Amino acid sequence: MADDEVRYEVRDGVATLTIDRPERRNALSWTVISGLREYVARARTDPDVRVLVLTGAGDKAFCAGADLGGMRADSSYAEVHEARGELAALFEDLWSLGKPTVAKVRGYALAGGFGLALSCDLVVAADDAQFGTPEIDVGLWPYMITVPLCRSMPPKRVLELMMTGRRIGAAEADRMGFVTRVVPVGDLDAEVDALAATLASKSPAVMRLGRDSFYAVWDQSAADALRLLHPMLTVTTELEDAAEGIDAFMEKRTPVWKGR
């Protein structure tokens, strides 16, 4: 892993994962994707981590997509094909993390970077953020990010962005519904810190079960989803944290979570 391209810090229950290639607008190389996957795996097993924040270094970009120059085929066709699947695997890693994820977006979030942001549970964008799928303009198609984008906005909106390659600003992104909130550039850090602290203050056991069930029923029919969600309610009520939460509510005090 190139630690000079991906940074990982943990403080107060929040892991911050930063793509640190500002001179390349935090573009995704094979090494960066590998590093992101390794750190997401670390966050998964670290009991001190309750929330993961994903961001990019500098003030120009969250992530401007793939490093087209750095991802040319230097290996066999099969090896390159396999490597391209790592971005899809990273999306799966984020969805199955079991802990809340927040994308902190400043500047460009394009192509694979757009998909990476929308693979997080929540997206907080500075008002200078720009989103788009410019692949069509260089003779490519944004195949890999179809799933996170279609999970975040109406599919025909996704198709229009993919076919035109146009970029949209934070205000339009907010209207389209795929960002959680838009804030002034100067407030971005404080807004994300406050949101992450709120998420970290919840029961990690309940958060894991609830978040996992949300993703599990995403593509199911209503009947199939309810068959899964019904027993999950019973499982959750048996947790120590559920009993503690109810006791704390009755006693008008802050609950002390044990994570079980």
Characterize the structure shown.
The protein has 260 residues and is α/β, with parallel strands linked by helices. The chain folds into two domains: 6-200, 2-enoyl-CoA Hydratase, Chain A, domain 1, CATH 3.90.226.10; 204-251. It contains ten helices and ten strands. It has helices at 30-45, 77-95, 112-118, 146-150, 155-164, 170-176, 188-200, 204-216, 222-237, 240-251, and strands at residues 6-11, 14-19, 51-56, 61-63, 101-105, 108-110, 122-126, 130-132, 167-169, 181-183. The strands form two sheets. Strands 1-2-3-5-7-10 form a six-stranded mixed beta sheet, with helices on both faces. Strands 4-6-8-9 form a four-stranded mixed beta sheet. It is globular. The model has no long low-confidence stretch (mean pLDDT 94).
Summarize the structure.
The protein is of the alpha/beta class and 260 residues long.
Average pLDDT score: 94
Q: Please tell me what the overall shape is.
A: globular
Annotation field: number of helices: 10
Question: What is the alpha-carbon Rg in Å?
Answer: 19 Å
Q: Provide the helix percentage.
A: 40-55%
The main pleated sheet reads as: 6 strands, mixed
The fraction of residues assigned to DSSP E strands is: 15-25%
| N-to-C SSE string, H for helix and E for strand | EEHEEHEEHEEHHEHEHHHH
CATH superfamily of the largest domain: 2-enoyl-CoA Hydratase, Chain A, domain 1
Class computed from helices, strands and strand pairing: alpha/beta
> How many domains would you count in the coordinates?
2
CATH fold assignment of the largest domain: 2-enoyl-CoA Hydratase, Chain A, domain 1
Task: Tell me the name of the CATH class of the largest domain.
Answer: Alpha Beta
* Architecture per CATH nomenclature, i.e. the level-2 architecture of the largest domain: Alpha-Beta Complex
End-to-end CA span:
33 Å
Stretches where pLDDT falls below 50 for ≥5 residues?
A: none
Kindly state the number of beta strands: 10
Across the major sheet, the strand order is 1-2-3-5-7-10
